[in-house]
Design a protein that fits this description.
Helix content is 30%, strand content 27%. The protein has 10 helices and 16 strands. The N and C termini lie far apart (58 Å). It has a single domain, classed as Metallo-beta-lactamase, Chain A (4-Layer Sandwich), CATH 3.60.15. It is globular. The strands form 3 sheets. Strands 1-2-3-4-5-8-9 form a 7-stranded mixed beta sheet. The chain has a 7-stranded mixed beta sheet with strand order 10-11-12-13-14-15-16.
Length: 322
């Protein structure tokens, strides 16, 4: 038989203990904050191709000083989308699994852009792929946050990959003469390009191309010069579904979608960069193709809709289903 009196006494004591703890402010289940996100990868299907965006991390940029418009205009535009400067900016790369080839679009920053970036390899492995499995790497342009991940301590990170980049960018950024003529604050970009690509050149794994190029069925490159002299948009297509990887055609979505005419200091040729952005965005909005952007908030995938003078960004729907 249960002793009802003892049970009631025990319940009373337990209640009194809980009240005492609450009164004293003691936490019942205190735990330290984790302060780490989940691994940075995402997956969607494009026809029969599997697309895996990979995060290289984020970096804070003082975009109000970088965009070619008044500081007040930048701050106002960002406040309308609940952002501020310095702006935490994503650096995204993308894996395309065609079923027969494993392709990487850009390689992240590696060690060239500070400690908050360089997470691509860890996130690539978390997604289920090893760097040695990558067959081809298509580089949109040779800025450090797109090529720095190619090497680590002078060694090839992707030892079995062939690197593809536009010849104009290769000639420009690997030129010592151009580096010597460049302002001091830009010389590091040349040095980063040389450190990242020269090991692949020595291994005979760099394959430059010029202009619009079809690399394999369903994988094409289109000249989109302006941001750099050889900037390239890559398009993949499967079962009549298309995805354009636009590299650095846009940096600050909160400003440049509504005002594509606004350029950034990183653009080598400002007017050409703005005209290219307008052209590619109009084509993407007209055709309804999916966009993969290097610096739109991870995973950087979405569609564009024409909106008055500018464009509206529609992020992809989250999915766990293939």
């Amino acid at each position: 038989m249960f002793n009802v009196k003892k049970l009631l006494m025990a319940a009373s004591l337990s209640s009194m203990t809980a009240v005492a703890l609450l009164a004293s402010g003691a936490a019942m289940a205190a735990a330290p904050m984790a302060k780490t996100p989940a691994p940075g990868y995402f997956r969607v299907m494009l026809g029969a191709f599997e697309i895996t965006p990979i995060s290289d991390g984020t970096v804070e940029l003082q975009v109000e000083k970088l965009l070619a418009q008044p500081v007040a205009a930048t701050n106002h535009a960002l406040s309308k989308v609940f952002l501020m400067t310095p702006l935490e900016t994503s650096v995204n790369a993308f894996v395309v699994n065609t079923g027969t080839k494993l392709i990487l679009i850009d390689s992240g920053a590696g060690s060239l852009f500070g400690p908050t970036l360089g997470k691509l390899v860890a996130n690539l492995k978390a997604s289920g792929y090893e760097p040695s499995q990558i067959d081809d790497i298509f580089i949109t342009h040779l800025h450090p946050d797109h090529i720095g991940g190619l090497v680590a301590n002078g060694e090839l990170v992707f030892p079995n990959a062939v690197i593809h980049a536009d010849q104009h960018d290769v000639e420009y950024w690997l030129s010592k003469d151009n580096m010597d003529k460049a302002p001091e604050d830009q010389k590091g970009m040349f040095q980063g390009a040389m450190a990242s690509l020269n090991p692949y050149i020595a291994a005979k794994r760099l394959l430059p191309f010029t202009g619009n190029t079809e690399f394999m069925p369903g994988v094409r490159g289109f000249s989109s010069y302006g941001h750099t002299v050889g900037h390239t948009v890559y398009e993949v297509e499967s079962k009549e579904q298309r995805l354009k990887f636009i590299g650095d055609l846009i940096h600050v979505g909160g400003v440049q979608f509504a005002h594509p005419e606004v350029t950034i200091q990183f653009d080598t040729h400002q007017k050409e960069a703005a005209a290219t952005r307008e052209r590619v965005f109009n084509e993407a909005a007209r055709d309804g193709v999916l966009i993969g952007a290097a610096h739109i908030q991870f995973p950087g995938l979405g569609h564009l809709q024409k909106d008055k003078k500018g464009f509206e960004w529609v992020p992809v729907n989250f999915t766990q289903m293939h």
